[in-house]
Write a structure and sequence with these properties.
Blueprint: H1 2-23, H2 28-44, H3 48-55, H4 57-60, H5 63-81, H6 85-93, H7 95-111
Helix pairs in contact: 2-5, 5-6
């Protein structure tokens, strides 16, 4: 049952993003930023954590989950080290994912030859 809820919640979040791309004038970059910001806001308010407990990977994998991770890291760091945690908490909590993105991006760049886009 956990897989079903993860699929449905993650699919719903992705479907909302696709509807925004198809039926609004928002660019994909703005939608991605909005998802991260919503994750931060919902995580800071304590609303996103119950969704994560309910849907698991369906709530943590989309970009809203990344925003929640940043907010949660800041909250924990502020509790532990005070004001300085505002600046270090998000980076510390997301360091694994950010490092993986950099490493895999570098490895992909080594394996494939880049080409410039043809002019439109």
């Amino acid at each position: 049952m956990n897989y079903l809820w993860a699929f449905l919640v993650g699919g719903l979040l992705c479907a909302i993003g696709q509807v925004l791309i198809d039926y609004t004038r928002l660019t994909p970059a703005r939608i991605l930023v909005a998802y991260v910001v919503m994750g931060v806001i919902l995580g800071g308010c304590g609303v996103y954590e119950p969704l994560i407990e309910f849907a698991g990977g369906g709530a943590t994998v989309p970009l809203t989950g990344f925003g929640y991770l940043l907010a949660d890291g800041v909250k924990k760091a502020v509790d532990e080290i005070g004001f300085l945690g505002i600046f270090t908490g998000g980076l510390t909590s997301a360091a694994g994912g950010i490092s993986a993105a950099i490493i895999f991006g570098f490895l992909t760049a080594l394996c494939f030859k880049s080409k410039s886009k043809p002019a439109a």
